[in-house]
Write the structure tokens for this entry.
Amino acid sequence: MAFLEAQGLCKGFAHGGGTRQVLRDVSLAIEEGEFLSIVGAMGSGKSTLLSLLAGLTAPDAGSVRIAGQQVVGIPSDVAFVFQNYSLLPWFSALENVRLAVGAAMPQLSRDAQQTRARHYLEQVGLGHALGRRPAQLSGGMRQRVSLARALATEPAVLFLDEPFGALDAMTRETLQQDLARLCSVAERPVTIVMITNNVEEAILLSDRIVPILSGPPATLGRPIVVDLPRPRSVSQLAHDEQASIVRAHVIATLTSALGRGTRSSGRAVPLASVALVEDRS
């Protein structure tokens, strides 16, 4: 049995007096310690799927299990990193992380929680900014706090909701490398599920990539293995033959699904969706 397993997930939302089906019969199996990226265009159902896997939303049908236990609500041993940082603005970087540690590890003293929070902030290069509030930090620094907060709780599963989408290219690449480094030295295996519309990001970080095929309702394509040595860099991947094969496979799967959806619905393909999928910044 896989560590994280979804079976037959379906989800719809009320729309125009009826129900709009977003996902249909989605199944997924993720091994412990694996980094899996779910890649698709904007509006393809990625965020809905992540919410179901993480227990933020209940499916209309199907089930999710983590370590053999059915997910009902948010499990205590998962953590999240969102695109919009989700930091408490009136607390310092240190206190934002300490609060998360305290919720996950209430048996620790306040001093021990603070020591742990400081350690992870130092790991992401923010040892000099412990006392700053979110408004005093750049976007990249805020996301570093979010990353430190997530990893400091020692999660079994880390869910990433387009965590680098709002950052400039240079900051994004630096944080991607920080994430890869921190997960490789974590105190226990961290299973990671990331949604993104950036194929290059998925190739850089993932063990496998799963294309989400636009609907509605959306379904999943066949997983694509990223059999590349680590550590990886954006410059190295730009000239790597195997990376080119993976890139072409993912993009072909996604654009083919967009084309089928357009022909069946009679609507135009949103060019921004395809452009973002092919972004190589």
